[in-house]
Every structure is written in C-alpha cells, then in structure tokens.
Write a structure and sequence with these properties.
Keywords: Membrane, Transmembrane, Transmembrane helix
Order of helices and strands: HHHHHHHHHHHHH
Largest sheet: none
Number of strands: 0
Organism: Mucilaginibacter celer
Strand content: under 5%
Distance between the termini: 34 Å
Structural class: mainly alpha
Oligomer: single chain
Shape: elongated
Protein name: Stage II sporulation protein M
InterPro entries: SpoIIM-like
Number of helices: 13
Radius of gyration: 23 Å
C-alpha cells in the first residue's frame, strides 16, 4: 500500500486518539495495540517517512499514559523526573535547539558589542558593579563579589532570583513567543558582555573556571525556560490540527511541567554559587570536575537520555 493511501485510511483514527485522550485502561491498551500495529507497518514500508516519526511519537504518548495509569501514585514524584520530563525534552527538542541558538547568538552580540564599545559593559552591568570588580582586580581578588555575603543568605537569595527569572522567561512566552526570546536576548547580551569583560582583563580562563561552576547549570536552566516559553507561545500561534484554545491548553501544560522541572537544577546552581564558587583558590582539578560533571549531566539528561527513552520505551 502506498503511503498516502495508508495515511488516508487511518488519519481519522489517529486524530481521534490524539484529540480525545482517555483514562480508561482497557481503551488505552486497545489504542496502544492499534498504534503499534500501524507503527510496525510504517517502519516496514516507510521507515524514514514523517508518518513513521508521527506514529512513533503517538505510540510513546500512549505508552506513557498507560504507565501513568498503573496506580503507582506513590512514585509520581520520581517518575516525573525519570520519565515524563525527559520525554518532554524529546518531544520539544526543536524548541530547545531554537532557544539555545537564540541565546548563543545573543551572547556573541554582547561580546562583540563589549569589544567595540568600551562603555557597553558599564551600560549592561552598571557602573557600581564594574567599579567594584575593577577594585577587586587591583587587590588581586577579581571574583571577590562571591565572598561578600553569608553563604546561606546568598544561597536563598540567588535561588529565589534564579527561579523568578526563569519563570518570567517562561511566562513571557504567552506574548507570541517573543517575550521569552526577549528575555533570552537580555540574559544572552549580559552574559556575553560580562564574559568578554574578564577576557579583556586577561582573566578569561580563570573566569570560566570560577563562574561556570554554577553558571553551567544556571544558564542551561534559563535556556530551557526560554524553550518552555517558546512552546507556550507556539502552541497558540501554530495549533496544527487542534482548535487554538485546545492547542494552547496542551502547550501550556507541557511548558509548565518543563518550567517546574528545572527548579531543582536552579537550586543546585544556587548552592554552587553560594557555597562553592566563593572558593576561588580551589584546586584546578576540582573546579574542572564540578564544571564538567554539570555539563555532562545537562547533555545527558536533556539530550542523550530522552532520545534513548524515546527509542526504547522498555527502559521504563
């Protein structure tokens, strides 16, 4: 059977499964069997087509629904971060990529602006911060700003601020996704100019080894929050086969889960900034280890593990 005919014969069924979810265990099982049969057929005759990709995603969603209906409510907290959130990362990997690219480009703009305009860093970071940092550099302690407060108070203050920034970045996506892109722009420009400032002072490598101890998790979480905002905005702009309000409800639900899911990452980042980053004279191996472990975790949890889970639902 040719692919267009296969799609024509089954699209009404697929659309009903997608638009009319059910919590009935028997109905879920029946739907899952039908979709996996269709998926097996598509993989055999159209292995690289969009139809196969679509059915794979639909099967994964039904499998997830069945899993959630097993009555294992006591493990709901664990299963959210172990299965549900990674599958959302897979589902919205394109939006995550867009958010990362936006942020990366904005960082480059900030760095180039700082390079060609010596007043740009002061405009972005403020005179007080630059003057204080210049004074710290003169004293031989360029990152002394991380040592000025009590560790515990610093931790709570940073955690609250980071969670606030991330949630604002997410919620702003309701403004047709542009709101979230604006906050990615704002933070990207700030980071790019901030990082260039230390490189211009001959402290580039040292700044990476100190600042990115907490920055790896913190910046990653902000990018993910930006992606959640793009998901929110795009669900309204591009409803596809759904009614616009239904699409917005679905997008908002998924985006909120992602925004809430990164809160533990922000808390760990705040812990590093409050209790660890201040030890600027720590051994090189320790700094590199913390930074590398954070980066490996983000790559694994947001990219590698979701893809493995998506391709092999039996990992559940």
């Amino acid at each position: 059977m040719r692919e267009p005919l296969f799609v024509k014969q089954n699209k009404a069924k697929w659309r009903s499964f997608e638009q009319s979810p059910t919590d009935d265990p028997d109905e879920l099982a029946d739907r899952f069997i039908q979709i996996t049969d269709d998926l097996a057929y598509a993989k055999t005759f159209y292995p690289k087509s969009k139809t196969t990709i679509y059915l794979n995603g639909l099967a994964a969603g039904l499998h997830q629904s069945i899993y959630k209906n097993k009555g294992e409510k006591s493990n709901r907290f664990l299963t959210f971060w172990k299965y549900e959130l990674p599958l959302l990362f897979k589902k919205y990997q394109r939006q995550l990529l867009y958010a990362f690219l936006f942020f990366f480009v904005f960082c480059l703009i900030g760095a180039l602006s700082a390079k060609y305009d010596e007043n740009f860093v002061r405009l972005i970071m403020g005179d007080n911060y630059i003057d204080m940092t210049n004074a710290n550099i003169a004293k031989g302690d360029p990152f002394g700003v991380y040592k000025g407060q009590n560790e515990l108070l610093m931790f709570f203050g940073i955690a609250a601020n980071n969670i606030y920034v991330s949630l604002v970045t997410f919620v702003s996506g309701i403004i047709f996704s542009v709101g979230s892109v604006f906050f990615l722009f704002r933070n990207g420009i700030m980071l790019g100019s901030f990082q260039y400032y230390f490189f211009s002072k001959g402290l580039g490598v040292q700044s990476v080894l100190v600042i990115w101890i907490h920055g790896t998790l913190e910046i990653s979480a902000i990018i993910i929050a930006g992606a959640a905002g793009i998901i929110l905005g795009n669900s309204f702009l591009f409803p596809k086969t759904f009614k616009r309000f239904e699409s917005l409800k679905r997008g908002a639900k998924d985006a909120m889960k992602i925004a809430v899911g990164i809160i533990p990452i922000l808390i760990v980042a705040a812990f590093f900034e409050g209790f660890v980053t201040r030890h600027t004279e720590m051994p090189l191996w320790l700094s590199v280890s913390i930074l590398s472990a954070s980066l490996v975790f983000i790559i694994w949890y947001v990219i590698i593990y979701p893809n493995k889970l998506y391709k092999n639902p039996n990992l559940k």
